[in-house]
Specification:
- With 205 residues, the protein is of the alpha/beta class.
- The protein is 48% helix and 15% strand.
- A 5-stranded parallel β-sheet has the order 3-2-1-4-5, with helices on both faces.
- The protein is elongated, with a radius of gyration of 23 Å.
- The protein starts with a helix and ends in a 7-residue tail after the last strand.
- About 4% of the residues have low confidence.
């Protein structure tokens, strides 16, 4: 930060509070101070560093972090994940080292009551279905339940699992605004290659 900016920031914080006390008394002054405090918090959150995520590991081994926001049991999608599209392990593609990540999506009521178990059970169910489907295709995988923030969950896993590729398995584009936003951010910030596999609604097939 440039040295000349700090005095301006102090003035911007102090002047409204002083004017509030002067013009409206203690009640108005305290209210203005609270608004300034909230504004500072909002600005601080917006200025959170958004650097690159992960590193590309050396070597030729393919290490895949598979992030599932819904269960993965589509054979065509699994074939595309196992190797090149339409080229599964039985067609000569080398099997990757796979870790499956399922973010725990916490609902409003669960958050309000601090009850995280339903979200964790749902995440674990997605993992069970996905791991079983991958096993049928000849792929072994580790399973992890992650943070509800999809981007944070990916960043956490890449610290212990240096992936060469990250694949997000989700519903159709536009179905979930939070997932769409997370996918866009991952596409911008990830150092490993990233792609999104948008599955259609199972009921529509």
């Amino acid at each position: 930060m440039a040295p000349w900016k700090l005095p301006l920031i102090v003035v911007a914080i102090a002047v409204p509070i002083v004017l509030g006390f002067y013009a409206g008394g203690p009640g108005v002054g305290v209210a203005v101070g609270a608004l300034v405090a909230v504004s500072i918090v909002v600005v601080a959150v917006r200025m959170t560093p958004r650097g690159a995520i992960g590193e590309v590991p050396a070597g030729a081994e393919r290490r895949l972090l598979l992030v599932v926001s819904r269960p993965l049991d589509d054979p065509a999608a699994i074939s595309a994940i196992a190797g090149e599209p339409g080229r599964g392990p039985d067609r000569g593609a080398s099997a990757p080292v796979v870790r499956v990540l399922s973010p725990a999506r916490i609902g409003f009521l669960d958050r309000w009551t601090s009850d995280l178990e339903p979200a964790r059970r749902e995440a674990q169910q997605r993992l069970v279905v996905t791991i079983a489907s991958l096993a049928k295709a000849g792929l072994e995988a580790e399973a992890r339940v992650g943070d509800e923030d999809l981007v944070q969950a990916v960043e956490d896993q890449l610290r212990s699992f240096p992936a060469t590729e990250v694949i997000l398995v989700s519903g159709p584009l536009g179905e979930d605004a939070a997932t769409d936003a997370a996918a866009a951010e991952l596409g911008e910030r990830l150092r490993p290659s990233f792609r999104r596999l948008a599955l259609s609604d199972p009921g529509a097939r």
